[in-house]
Specification:
By secondary structure, this protein is an alpha+beta fold. The protein has a single domain, classed as Jelly Rolls. It has 3 helices and 14 strands. It is globular, with a radius of gyration of 18 Å.
């Protein structure tokens, strides 16, 4: 395969939709400072925005010839939060970082979904849309991947010129899949999903709080290939799309809190997939 012009159309679509756009900004992780031990990672809060645009270094990425998903900071329930509206669109908001993955590493946020993407079906390529996803990118050593996965990842990196992350874990609020379900993305093994919430909240318009132990969830979805490896977290992203189903979704997100203690390297005490004690 001497040039990108020989890459099949279907593969190019997969490459862009599942790898390129979410990580154009995430490639900046190589220059991002590591978090201080014991401190929250430097994830800039949405509530610090002076206007409607998410504050730097949050960066928006989308695809060519796609309607962009709208991300804007708004006042909601007395707080500054991120409003995400997908309307036959595609888009991601990405924040680069570099944080060690270990037993102390947690991710916490609050979210609410007012409008689900009606015909979304995470098990099918034609339905791979969603109103609300929080994704975490990991720097897993590529020499631990199968030959086929290494080849596809190398091709993605060479074609795009970006440091495409080797693994992504996405937390999803879905309208159909059962709460607690885990899925492999319909397009690529490099992205795996955990369904944290399913269907409308018990109280319409209610905010739901999440606090996850990232190592436990990472081993739950990537344990088959990772073993005892604990790759660094290199980016966090908010994602919403409705381009496959031509639908509509509306969700809100609070500030994102990512924490890790650099000296902790053991997973003792955390059961796979179980949230750490929350607020």
């Amino acid at each position: 395969m001497a040039s990108s012009t020989r890459i099949p159309t279907a593969y190019r679509q997969w490459l862009h939709a599942m790898l390129v756009a979410p990580v154009v900004a995430a490639a900046l992780w190589m220059a991002a400072p590591a978090a201080h031990a014991g401190d929250a990672a430097d994830i800039t809060p949405f509530s610090s925005a002076r206007g409607a645009e998410a504050p730097a270094p949050w960066r928006f990425t989308t695809l060519p010839n796609k309607t962009p998903t709208r991300f804007e900071v708004v006042q909601q329930d007395g707080r500054r939060v991120l409003k995400v509206e997908a309307d036959q669109s595609y888009g991601n908001l990405v924040h680069a970082t570099q944080v060690p993955l270990n037993a102390s590493t947690t991710l916490a946020w609050r979210w609410r979904v007012d409008d689900f993407v009606k015909d979304a079906d995470l098990r099918k390529r034609s339905g791979d849309d969603g109103a609300a996803k929080v994704c975490v990118f990991f720097d897993f050593p590529t020499d631990r991947l199968s030959f086929g996965e290494r080849t596809r990842l190398a091709l993605a990196r060479r074609t795009t010129g970006e440091q495409v992350p080797s693994e992504a874990l996405c937390y999803v609020w879905d309208n159909k899949e059962a709460k607690g379900s885990t899925l492999v993305n319909a397009f690529t093994q490099r992205m795996r999903m955990v369904v944290l919430e399913s269907g409308p909240a018990a109280t319409p318009g209610a905010w739901v709080s999440e606090r996850r132990n990232l190592l436990a969830d990472y081993r739950r979805v990537f344990g088959d290939e990772a073993g005892d490896t604990m790759p660094d977290v290199v980016a966090v992203a908010i994602s919403a799309d409705a381009d496959n189903t031509l639908g509509h979704g509306l969700a809100y997100f609070s500030d994102i809190d990512l924490r890790s203690i650099a000296s902790t390297r053991s997973a003792g005490g955390f059961a796979a997939g179980r949230p750490v004690p929350g607020e």
